[in-house]
Design goal:
About 75% of the residues lie in helices and about 0% in strands. The two termini are about 20 Å apart.
């Protein structure tokens, strides 16, 4: 066990607490609006909350950040990786957002939801003895390399997302293209003039969201890699695929495998380029 990381005996009760908060935050507005939610939907949100809590509960104590800074880092990760990057893709690859104003409203609501989730995570999953501050840690992290080295590493790690995304997308295309070309399903394949800048932007946002965590985890590259892949895949893909029924059920498992492969490969590139130097 890493010094400053304490899991038992309260860890699983904290996971339960986060999962209940995740469930209430995501389904509460619907219930307040008079909508009916099924026990199955509630169970999916609870399981999704448990999965995210397990990831955060493993990663966040290892940063050893003081709680206010931990909340900022958690909010950035949850907002960008869990919601905003998926909303961007949903905007261009489906008709789920009918207008720009609907998209903006969704983004603002996501900002609020993820902020509250980050506050909960900051209370539940801080290290036993938090001592680090985010700004000094980031300064020390960037001081390990020249500005030029840091910039090209961030640029390459960001740009690497597109070829990884495209390669695995091509592999699954025979299985998913029929669904994306069926107008009745509300899915769209945008032109490459949209896909390329969109995925380059998403790759950059992933790197920006992960950098504070990479900079503050002073452990082995294997630990950093596991944390990066876990964040990219579980909050970033698996839980959204579980709780948000935007895709036809037949292609959800295919996309789940595809994005797992994306996360493993892109996570390896990010870790190789951006993890702190071994002491």
């Amino acid at each position: 066990m890493t010094r400053g990381v304490k899991y038992l005996p309260l860890f699983f009760s904290r996971v339960f607490g986060f999962a209940m908060g995740f469930l209430l935050l995501n389904l509460g507005p619907e219930l307040l609006g008079g909508a009916q939610t099924s026990p199955y939907s509630s169970a999916l949100y609870f399981v999704g909350g448990v999965l995210i809590a397990l990831v955060l509960g493993w990663i966040l104590p290892r940063t050893r950040l003081v709680r206010p800074d931990l909340v900022v880092v958690t909010w950035l990760s949850l907002f960008v990786i869990h919601l905003f990057n998926n909303m961007l893709e949903g905007y261009f690859f489906s008709n789920v957002f009918s207008t720009v104003s609907v998209f903006v409203s969704g983004v603002l609501f996501s900002l609020l939801i993820t902020l509250v989730e980050a506050l909960i995570a900051g209370v539940l999953f801080a290290a036993e003895r938090p001592e680090r501050r985010l700004i000094p840690e980031l300064s020390n992290y960037f001081a390990e390399r020249t500005h030029t080295s840091s910039l090209w590493r961030i640029a390459v790690a960001s740009a690497a997302y597109f070829p990884v995304y495209f390669a695995f997308g091509v592999l699954i295309s025979p299985f998913v293209i029929p669904y994306y070309t069926d107008p009745s399903l509300g899915l769209v394949i945008p032109p490459f003039t949209v896909i390329i800048p969109l995925e380059l932007l998403r790759g950059f946002l992933y790197v920006v969201a992960l950098l504070p965590i990479i900079a503050t985890i002073k452990e082995t590259r294997r630990t950093v890699y596991f944390g990066v892949v876990s964040l990219l895949y579980i909050p970033g893909a698996l839980v959204p695929l579980m709780v948000q029924p935007l895709l036809p059920v037949n292609i959800v498992p295919i996309h789940a495998v595809e994005i797992l492969a994306d996360s493993i490969v892109h996570g390896a590139v990010i870790t190789r380029l951006l993890a702190r130097r071994s002491k």
